[in-house]
Design goal:
This is Cytochrome P450. Keywords: Endoplasmic reticulum, Heme, Iron, Membrane, Metal-binding, Microsome, Monooxygenase, Oxidoreductase, Signal. Its EC number is 1.14.14.-. It is a peripheral membrane protein. Its cofactor is heme. This protein is α+β, with helices and mostly antiparallel strands. The chain has a single domain, classed as Cytochrome p450. It has 16 helices and 9 strands. The strands form 3 sheets. A 5-stranded mixed sheet has the order 1-2-7-4-3. Helix 7 runs antiparallel to helix 12 and helix 8 crosses helix 12. It is globular and about 65 Å long. The protein starts with a helix and ends with a strand. The N terminus is likely disordered.
Amino acid sequence: MDLFIVLVICLSCLIPLSLWNRNRAKEKLPPGPTPLPIIGNILQINVNNVSKSISKLAETYGPVFTVYFGTERAVVIYGYEAVKEALIDQSEVFSGRAPFPVLDRVIQGLGIVFSNGERWKQVRRFSLMVLRNLGMGKKTIEDRIQEEALCLVEALKKTNATPFDPTFLLGCAPCNVICSIIFQNRFEYDDKKLSLLINYFHENLLISSNAWIQLCNAFPLLLHFPGSHNRLLKNIAYQHKFIVEKVKEHQDSLDFNNPQDFIDYFLIKIEKEKHNKQSEFTMENLIATVWDVMSAGTETTSTTLRYGFLLLLKHPEVTAKVQEEIDRVIGRHRSPCMQDRSHMPYTDAVIHEIQRFIDLVPNNLHHTVTQDTKFRGYLIPKGTTIVTSLTSVLHDDKEFPNPDQFDPGHFLDESGNFKKSDYFLAFSAGKRACAGEGLARMELFLLLTNILQHFTLKSLVDPKDIDTAPIVNGLAAPPPVYEVCFIPV
């Protein structure tokens, strides 16, 4: 009897395995490690650092290979040439968004980030048009950021040069900028709602990047068990409730002839299409879209700033050069403006190097192909998950010598002028590239220069002992917690 059971178990493993391999050969998929039934290649992937595992697999299988996260098939695209070919040269075909099982129940394919097809095209096009109408990339937004930068400087002065964790304050300014676009109002820094929103955005990024969430996405059955995914869903539920309250306020005061902010524009669009049963402009989609814009517009920028100041603490010689350039170009008696950036190549290089070095979203948000696709001699079936390794581009050792070292020289030529790089894909590329790239670039420059214009940074430990490794490395790679003193100059 024992022998019979062993035979049954062996057959139950071998049959699915042979079917899997037969399908792979038939579909001419890229090569990859042999998957095990049910669990796929999960034993070959470190869920604490998926990016590192992908880099190791690329050494064996090259720039295009297939892996299985559980039963979910994914084609990994690694290295600048392959990533460019997919996201830019074949941008339409590679523009689908892969499922994110942990969030699918609450997002339901709505909004901009996790939607697909005609819904994604319509909502994204409309949102970009509205954001431009509201000043995105224009002087009006620059003025808002400058005003918020001064508020942030005042808040930092109130710390009285004592050690503190900058996470909350560095989140206030980006959150207020995006709230002014969506709601037409900002929050005082001691507002409890602002504190909750920022804490939830920060916690969401940490949770969605931990090993448990990577496992839940590979094995959705785990979502029925206790785990940090429940905390993530609870946080999102609170944020959705907050957005619903704001929408109700806007409904009561809406002037159809004079929209003031993003919600106003969306509500007017809903009214115009209320008789269209196929309309993508619904109340549910408004809530999801606002959540997308707020999430993307708050946490990524604030995390980049927080990581940036940690790197500046680690490299005081870099900080000194930035402050010297600020003194020379801007001085101490006026606020920085975007026109200054073209005269500040070193500061511009430092900001780019921060984004390159931290590699905030190592494997991008996963894509799918929208049709059966020939790619480098392989056939990728429609709906296949696509993992584009941004790490492989941002840390390419031919484009960026010693890529694991923080060096602003990566973006400077021999004469000290700023040097652009096609490999700078911190905002991804193609049709799914970050819609708020222009706003983020503006915020990073204005907020960082304003702070360094008014403060010197003091570390609590010797710079040589500062650990800059990310605290987790999954969906994102946020920095470790640290304290800093902002000393007024």
